[in-house]
Structure formats: C-alpha cells, structure tokens
Amino acid sequence: AQRVTQPEKLLSVFKGAPVELKCNYSYSGSPELFWYVQYSRQRLQLLLRHISRESIKGFTADLNKGETSFHLKKPFAQEEDSAMYYCALQGGTSYGKLTFGQGTILTVHP
Amino acid sequence: ETGVTQSPTHLIKTRGQQVTLRCSSQSGHNTVSWYQQALGQGPQFIFQYYREEENGRGNFPPRFSGLQFPNYSSELNVNALELDDSALYLCASSWGGRGANTGELFFGEGSRLTVL
C-alpha cells in the first residue's frame, strides 16, 4: 500500500524567512513525487515534480529515498506563497492515479 | 485552451438518493480521473477513464461508477448515497493513459455534494 504523510497541518512563517514543508511517503517500488498547490479561490495545480528536478517560484524539492521524504523548500518565503500545499505520490505506472497527503496550510506573514 | 469544467458546483441530496456529476476535460486531453476530497483531507483517487474505459480504481465501492464519452467528457455516478459521501468531488484531466506518462493533472474546481 502507498501512503503520504504531511505531519504539519498548519505552518506559519514571516516574509523572507526560509520555509520547509515536510512530506514522507511509504511505497515499495520507485515512486514519482509531486507537490500540488491550491491558492485562495483557485483550483488545485501542479507546483513541481521530482522527475523534472526544476525550481518553480523559488521552490525546490529533493527526493530522499533513504529517508522516504520529499520535503518542499524555499529559502525566502513571500506573502503570495500562502496557500494549501499537497504532496502526492504516483506509484509505478499508475499514471494519473495519485495518493495525496492531508495537506499543509502555509501562511506567510508580512 | 478550455480548462476542466465541472457541474453542478453545489448540490444537496438525501440519503439513499442517486447523483450524477459531470466533467468536461481540458482540450486535447483523453484521460479523466475522479477524486473525492472530504473536509480537511487530501483528495482520494476514485477511478480513472481512458478512451471510454475504466483504467484503474481506488478503494471505493461499486455504487461509485463512471462513464467517459467519445468527446472525453465524463460522469461520476453515486447510488444509494450515504452521509459519508458528503465531499468535494474533483475531476482531473490529462493526456495519456496506458503506456504513457500522463504527468501533470489539470483539475476542475469541483462539485460539492452534501448528503442529508
């Protein structure tokens, strides 16, 4: 069975501070990991995926297979980063069939 | 480019009734996945349709069923509604299916179902 855990339901930081949203997963094979984001009054959208190893809006995430983690990081948080963030896992060839974590609400204070 | 649209946006039903939710996929996409999002939870995979056939199913009972049409739009049907079916139902479209990496999912805004 596959599982995604986001241990923090709420995370508050001040503008300019570093931010790290934690994600741990359980999966026996080689997973693909994603971060999805939902800004206020907007639909859920992809932020980044581990396989493309890209930085989007200053966010990065590294897949650590030893620790089964995929934490999302940004060195300097901005107020517009305030949103709900979901970590999601796609197992093997189960394309489009994602297992989501419970989500973390990030609030960046001015 | 037209995004994923869902209807209705809100609806209220009573226990035992049946409901049909509709989804139009994004232009160029041939795969539709449905998710249930209970309050305070992340989305949970219900099933996926690719070229009008079910292409995988999550841990949901048979009273959750679906269809995909030749234009790739889709319906989610739930029979014998229970109180726990109250949730936001999300539709997501993508390109691919069997043997292809669908990559990014494009979500609709959801249909919020309340069962009384």
Topology:
The complex is a heterodimer of chains A (110) and B (116).
Chain A: E1 3-5, E2 10-14, E3 19-21, E4 24-26, E5 31-38, E6 45-49, E7 60-61, E8 72-74, E9 83-91, E10 98-100, E11 104-109
Chain B: E1 5-7, E2 10-13, E3 19-24, E4 31-37, E5 44-50, E6 53-57, E7 64-68, E8 74-78, E9 87-94, E10 106-107, E11 111-115
Parallel strand pairs in B: 2-11
Antiparallel strand pairs in B: 1-3, 3-8, 4-5, 4-9, 5-6, 7-8, 9-10, 9-11
Description:
The complex is a heterodimer of chains A (110) and B (116). Helices cover 0% and strands 45% of the residues of chain A. With 110 residues, chain A is mainly β. The radius of gyration of chain A is 13 Å and the shape is globular. In chain A, the strands form 3 sheets. In chain A, strands 2, 5, 6, 9, 10 and 11 form a 6-stranded mixed sheet that branches. In chain A, a hairpin with a 6-residue loop joins strand 9 and strand 10 (98-100). Chain B is mainly β. Helices cover 0% and strands 49% of the residues of chain B. Chain B has no helices and 11 strands. The radius of gyration of chain B is 13 Å and the shape is globular. The A-B interface holds A 4, 6, 43-46, 49, 86, 88, 93-103 and B 3-4, 31, 33, 35, 40-45, 48, 56, 58, 90, 92, 94, 96-97, 99-110.
- Tell me, briefly, the overall form of chain B: globular
CA-based shape of chain A: globular
Helix content of chain B: under 10%
Report mean pLDDT of chain B, rounded to a whole number: 92
For the biggest sheet of chain A, the summary is: 6 strands, mixed
Structural class of chain A: mainly beta
Radius of gyration of chain A: 13 Å
Overall pLDDT of chain A, averaged? 93
N- and C-termini, Cα separation of chain A: 41 Å
